[in-house]
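User: Need the bound-state model for fe (ii) ion:
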Amino acid sequence: MFESTLVPPRVSRHRSGSRPAIVIVTTLIVLLAMALLASCAGDAPLSPSDDPGELVIYSARNERFVDALLEKFQGDTGITVRALHAGGGAVNRIIEESRNVQADIFISNDIGALEHLRINGLLEGSEPEGVETIDSRFRADDNSWFALSARTRVLMYNQDLITAEEMPTTIWELTDPTWAGQFAITRGGNGSMIAHISALRYEWGDARTAEWIAAVKENAGAIMEGHGDIRRAVGAGEFAFGLVNNYYYHQQLLEPTDNNVGVIYPDQGEGEMGAVVNAAGVGLIKGAPNAENAQRFLAWVLLPENQREFSYASMEVPINPTVQAIGQAATIADYRTHAMPLSELGEVFEGTKELIERSGLDLELR
Ligand SMILES: [Fe+2]
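Assistant: Bound-state model below.
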């Protein structure tokens, strides 16, 4: 059933047959001890005999950015984590399984996907401890999902090819023929691209957004599979700049070569729309088979050290301003951000994909 598992599924958790009274008393003592431990989320490891059960996670994030976090959770709690790294297929899988729910938690790199599931009744609200550390703009009204790290749309440029002063300062300028062939974008079906275009629809309406998509597609020097391809190509000087999420800039800075890159946070001027922010976060799946462990995970991931881990692995920036950002990274308080609440992304998710295709930008590379 799993395309990829962090650890193999447990074989059996239930034993049958009658037990002597002494065993029942022992069991009660163990349960009491477990309850005491569970009352403070994410602390001392439990011994295997306590059998804290499992947690099934579907993740759309890059596997590299999730595994260390899940291993830490497993180490902290003793709960066996089974992870399916389903990429862009996670949302459809959760929808398909709605009558036979398999997953407890969905980790997403796009709030639009989380809100899309919530609107369709596939997420469950709750009140995990620590959720108030996340600004209400970055969580669902019922906390059925909350964001942990920000991903902001920026223009990363090669400083050997262009200066900050020469760079475009707005997203609209990518339609200007001046830049023909000089920049790279991703395919239309990339989750961050979909969310970005949803924000443009919110700001500009569909006609102007369609015009932007068609012109940018025409102007782009390359349309690439993912942002990793763009950052490497810009770093190598194949293009002057690329439209990426901010953490790709921080990733490129760490490369041993091809690292002479700069970043522009677009639309920062008075009256301009501000940089478009999306986020990565987690959602609680309705009917989660391991609901208690899912609750433990939510409270655990909201502990500051784990919020930090969630963001740092990918070099994103924590949403919670009291959690320190990685070195040199601008926090979302440092620049003008687009005013749209992230929950707006959910309703337009399907419509945006249609608009992208209709405007001539393919969702997948051909
Ligand atoms: Fe990414």
